[in-house]
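Bumping with the actual sequence this time:
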Amino acid sequence: MSKRLKKKSMALAVAVTVCALAMGLLLASMQTRLSQEEYALEFDRVAAELPDLVKMARSETEDNTQTFDDLYRTRAASIAFMAANDAGYEATDVKMAELKDLLKVDNVLVARRDGSIIAKAADTKADFSRARFNQLRQCFETGRPSDPVEVDLPDQDWLMRYYAAKIDDDTMVIVEQNPQELHALVKDTGSTESMLKNISLGSHGFVLAVSAKTHLITYHPDQNMIGTDALDNGIDIDNLEDGKTFFTSVKNTSLYCRVKLVDDTYYVLAIPESDTATARNITVGVILFAFISIVAAVALYDLFVLADDEHNDHGDHEYVKIGRNLRFNPAVGRRATALSIAGLVLLLAVTFYMQTLFALSSQATVNRERVEQIDQTLKNNAMREDELTRQYSEHYATTCHIIAYIVEHNPELATRANLHSLAETLGVESIYLYDGDGNMTSSSTSQRSYSLSTKYGDSSYEFRSLLAGKDEYIQPLSINRTTGETYQYIGVALYDQDGIADGIAQIAVRPMRLEEMLKSTKIDAVLDGIKAGAGGFAFAIEKKEGTVAYHPNNLLMGKKASEIGLADEHLADGFSDFIYIDNQKLYASCLETGDYYVYVAAPEDSFMHQRVPLTIATGIIAAICFVLIYPLLTLDTIRGEEKRSKREDDFTARRYNITVTTSDGRIKHSESAIGRWLNISFKWEDKPPSKNSAQSSDGLPASEYLSSFWPSCLKTRCLARVRYSPTSWVMTGSTASTYSRSPLQSCTPVWLSQCAQSCRRFFVCCPMCLERAARRYVDFSRA
C-alpha cells in the first residue's frame, strides 16, 4: 500500500470513529429524550390523579375511624343501658370482668366524674383525673357516648383508646381498647402508604411523600427511609416546588422526578433512570453496530478499489480534475454512492426494527409489572375481604350476645319499644326474639309474626341449629329481594336458668360500611385504576361464563369474549401479544386468576409512535456521516502527480509530434516515424501485463548498450520493436536489471528496445537520448 493510501486509510478510520461516537451520543440523547417525554405523560397523569387520591384516602380513614369508634362507643352505651334498665349491672370488679369478656374489649372500668375509679376489670395506666381525659367527661353534658381519647406513648408501651358513657350524673363507664385493629385498617385502606404503593410509574417508578413543613419523608417504598430528612437523602430544597422536574440521586439511585404539592405534602414522582437504561443501551448498541459495520464496509471496499487501481496503474483518464489540486475518481464515486445508499436503507430498516423491539420490550415490561401488581392486589383483597367479613361478623355477633345477655337478665325488656331503643343504642337495624319452637315472640319492628323455616335449604332454616345446641350462627351477606339492599342476619341462643336453649335472639344489620369496603376489593374497583402507559387500561373476562366482567367501555360489559374479538388462544395465562378489541389493535398481557382472565392492554399507537421520528433522525445523522466520508473516498490531490504527468505529456508530444518548415516558409506539424512505428507495429496497450516487462541478459552498463547496438536499432526493422513502458524504471543507475510492472513513483521513465534478429539483447537508455536519436534520424531522412 502506498503512502498516499495509508494516509487516506488513517483519515477514514478517524472519520468513521468520530461519526460513530457522534451517532452513539446523538442516539442515546434522543432515546433518553423520547423516554423522558413518555415519562412526562406519566407524570401528568399521576399528578392529575393525586388530589383525588389524597381526598379519597382521607375520606377512607375518616370512615374507618368513625366505624371503629361507633362500634366501641356502643359497647360503653350497652353497659349504660344495662345500668339504666337493671339488666345485670353491678359496679364491682367481678362484674366488670364478666362484661369485659362479654363485650370482648381490653378493659371495662367505672369511674366518677373526677376520674377516680370505682370498679375495673383490669389494671390501667390511665389517670382519668388528668386533663388529657377531659373529653371523656363530655358524656355528662351530652348524655351520649363521648368522643374517643387515644394515648400513644411508645416509650411507656402504652397504646390505648378510651370511650365513656354516662351511667348517672356522677358516674361513667369507660371502655379501654387497643386501637391496633383500627391502625391496621387505616394502613391498609386510607394511609399514605396504601394510597401511594399502588401508583405505577414506568416499570419500577414510585411516589415518595415529603412533609412541606419538616421536610421529613413520610412515605417511601423502603421503610428505612420513612422519617428521615429528605435533604440529607439527596433531594435539594430548591427542587421541592410544585411542578418542578429534575434529576436527583437517592441512596445511589439516579431518579427522574416531578414534584406535586397537595395540601402540606410534597409528592415526588420518581422513575429510576435504570428503567430504560438497559433497553436503551441495547437498542443504541445494535443500531450503532449496524452503522459502524455499514460505514466500515463502504470505506474498506472503496479502499480496495483504490488499491487495485493503483496496483494496475490505471491512467489519469479515469479521474475528473476539480480545481487546481483535486481530482475526483468517478469509478470509486459510483461504488461509494451505491454502497452508501444501500447501507443507509439497511440502517433505516435496522433502526426501525430495533425501535419496534424497544417499544414492545418496554410495553411488555410495563404490562408485566401491571399484571403482577393486579395479581398481588387481588390476593391481598381476597385476604382483606375475608378479614373484614370476619371482623364485622364477630363485632355484630358480640352485639347479638349483648342483646341476649340483657334480655336474659331482664325479660321485661322484650317489648317492641325497649327492643327498638336497644337497637338504636347498639346500632343495629332490627332485633327479633324467638321461642323454643322457632316462632317470633317480639321484635323491634312492626312485624308481628314469623316462624323459622323447617325446610332445609331455606335462608332461615339454619337458625334452628341454635335450638339444637349451637351457640351462634352468622349468616352470609344476602340481598333483600324486595328492597335490593344488602343485609346480614346473626343469631345467638337464649338460655333459661338451667342453661338450656329455649329461644333465639336475632339481629338484622345493614353493613353499609362493610359493603363499601368490600366493593373496593372487587374486580372492577381493582382494574378501574390500572393504567399501562398513555391510553392503556385493564379488563377482565369471567372464566365460568366467558363474558366481559369489566371493561372501561361499559358497552362491552357482559358480552361474550368471542364477540369482542378474543379467540381461545388469547384466553391463557401468560399470553402476551397483539389482539383486536372493538376494532382497536392492542398489545395485551394476560393473567389467569381463580375466577377471571385479567388483561392489561395498551393501544399500539400509544407506544409505537416514537419509531418513525427516531428512525428519521438516525437516517439524517447517518446521511450526514456518509456525506462527510464520501470526499475522503473519492477525492485526491494531484500535486505529486502533476509534475510527472507534465513531463510525460511533454515527452509524448515531443515523441509523437514534430514541426517541419517547408522551403516556402510554411510550418507543418506531423507525427514522427518512431511514433508511427510504436503505435502501428505492436500496439503495446493491448498486450497483457506479463508481456510488458524488460530483462537484461547480462547486466551490461547502459552506455555499452548505446554504443554497441544503437546504430542497428535505427533501422526500421529494429525500431518497429521499440516501445515505451511508463511503468518500468532504472533503480541502479547505469545497470540494467529485471523489473516487473509496478506503480510509478519518483523514477524516470525509460525506453526499452529489442534487436531480436541481430543480437537478441535488451538495452536501456534515458528518454532524452532516444529523443536526440530520433531527431537525428529525422534530420538524416530530410537530408
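The C-alpha cells above came from a reply further down the thread. The longest strand covers residues 158-168.
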